[in-house]
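Below is a filled-in request sheet from our internal design queue. Each sheet records the structural input a requester submitted and the sequence that came back. We keep these sheets so that new team members can see what a complete request looks like end to end.

REQUESTER: design group, bay 2
PRIORITY: normal
MODE: inverse folding
CHAIN LENGTH: 475
BACKBONE (tokenized):
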């Protein structure tokens, strides 16, 4: 029998940290005459991969990573561990950037899928990397065909093998859930143990000489020469600063109308290998349905089911608090959804439940760029799909730092314009109302009903206002 784990940490982090002592905050003794080349605020995937690309390209670079908790302790150590690219985003990429640049960006993100696995193997990080593909499926008539525009666009730009239409029988052959219908397959996709990957990055970078300041809160970056980073344990000086704040960027000056922070929650079952065998879920596929408040699920090497649902609450002013870690209503909704997909799991023990924030951008693509005269750089807004895109973003950020005129640093996705959310309290109020409307709309459609006119109108409001999420107006 598994031992209970801390709900505010979650099974992935508990497993990754088992047998390891707590990290101890180091004293900050900044050398005014010798500042860091780069200080990175945020020790999740974005900050860690930025550091990796920098030390790999520039041996001897002086780097420090500051994190309010432990590296990987936020969403990077709590997510579903889905590693896939943006082939499902192709229609919007083509609309926004044109076919050539869209294909270039999609291929770069796709490269990250294999690169993460090869990096883990080369550096001795056992992150449970398994290339089993990613299936986007329908779980109600309202979701049927959601993926077809992306499948058609992939074929139109010459990469039909990257996103493949699947019939209902083909879906059931991979995972025989009673509610899953047709879908699409992204073959070049994998799963990882997300906290093992994050902590492995930390350990490899520490061995390469990167300074880690965990349990340290950064409060501001002040313009000076060099830049001055104010933290809870002293000041740091840096020639350049990278803001890799994830959902915490929603409360950072300059980004407060660029992001929404919403909660996503996960459950982990006890090992159920015989159940997985009975439904034919042997290939390690990562699977998600086609709701906006998405359900996502995968297996582990010892035969568990990890099941997530994007049904958590929003925070006022972008604040990330305990509701993101533990939300009884969201956990109950996730459990109900898991049993809808897999009724035979009713007798399986759920050994862990946890949550974390996701950073929603207006167009659901990450915002990557520079500010403050080109010395402060940022990436955030992964909108619940950050494992491979954060690797891509780290690659771009390192290029912006080291080669700002180069091809990667000047991709059209860098420093692009975007819509803004309204200021508080409108942002919080709107997010709460729309979020609940989207969840309720999805639940009614899952049950085979038709949402009311009012519910459909509220759920469609974001798209009517020009944001790329929520229901379409004619649903």
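RETURNED SEQUENCE:
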């Amino acid at each position: 029998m598994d031992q209970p784990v801390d709900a505010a940490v979650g099974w992935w982090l508990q497993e990754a940290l088992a047998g390891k002592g707590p990290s101890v905050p180091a004293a900050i003794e900044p050398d005014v005459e010798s500042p860091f080349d780069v200080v990175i605020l945020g020790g999740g995937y974005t900050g860690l991969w930025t550091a990796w690309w920098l030390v790999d390209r520039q041996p001897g670079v002086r780097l420090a990573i500051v994190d309010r908790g432990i590296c990987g302790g936020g969403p990077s150590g709590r997510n579903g561990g889905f590693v896939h690219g943006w082939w499902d985003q192709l229609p919007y990429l083509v609309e926004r950037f044109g076919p050539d640049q869209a294909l270039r960006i999609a291929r770069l993100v796709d490269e990250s899928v294999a690169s993460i696995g090869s990096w883990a193997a080369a550096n001795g990080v056992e992150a449970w990397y398994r290339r089993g593909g990613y299936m986007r499926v329908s779980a109600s008539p309202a979701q049927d065909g959601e993926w077809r525009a992306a499948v058609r666009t992939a074929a139109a730009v010459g990469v039909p093998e990257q996103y493949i239409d699947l019939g209902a029988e083909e879906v059931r052959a991979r995972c025989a859930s009673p509610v899953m219908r047709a879908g699409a397959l992204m073959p070049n996709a994998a799963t990882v143990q997300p906290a093992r990957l994050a902590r492995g990055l930390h350990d490899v970078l520490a061995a390469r000489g990167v300074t880690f300041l965990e349990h340290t809160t950064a409060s501001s970056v002040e313009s000076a020469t060099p830049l001055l980073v104010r933290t809870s344990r002293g000041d740091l000086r840096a020639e350049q600063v990278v803001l890799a704040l994830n959902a915490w960027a929603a409360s950072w000056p300059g980004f407060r109308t660029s992001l929404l922070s919403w909660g996503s929650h996960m459950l982990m079952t006890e090992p159920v290998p015989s159940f997985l065998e009975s439904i034919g879920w042997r290939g390690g596929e990562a699977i998600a349905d086609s709701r906006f408040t998405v359900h996502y699920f995968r297996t582990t090497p010892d035969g568990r089911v990890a099941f997530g649902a994007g049904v958590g609450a929003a925070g006022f002013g972008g604040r990330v608090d305990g509701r993101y870690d533990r939300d009884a209503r969201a956990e109950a909704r996730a459990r109900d959804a898991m049993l809808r997909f897999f009724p035979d799991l009713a007798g399986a023990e759920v050994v862990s439940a946890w949550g974390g924030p996701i950073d929603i951008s207006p167009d659901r693509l990450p915002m990557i760029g520079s500010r403050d005269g080109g010395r402060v750089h940022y990436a955030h807004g992964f909108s619940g799909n950050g494992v491979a895109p954060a690797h891509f973003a780290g690659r771009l950020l390192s290029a912006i730092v080291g080669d700002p005129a180069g091809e990667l640093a000047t991709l059209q996705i860098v420093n692009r314009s975007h819509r803004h959310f309204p200021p508080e309290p409108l942002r919080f109020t709107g997010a709460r109302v729309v979020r609940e409307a989207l969840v309720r709309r999805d639940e009614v459609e899952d049950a085979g009903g038709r949402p009311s006119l009012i519910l459909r109108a509220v759920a469609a409001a974001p798209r009517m206002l020009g944001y790329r999420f929520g229901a379409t107006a004619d649903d």
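SHEET NOTES:
- Confidence is low (pLDDT under 50) at residues 1-5.
- The CA atoms of residues 143 and 290 lie 6 Å apart.
FILED BY: M.R.
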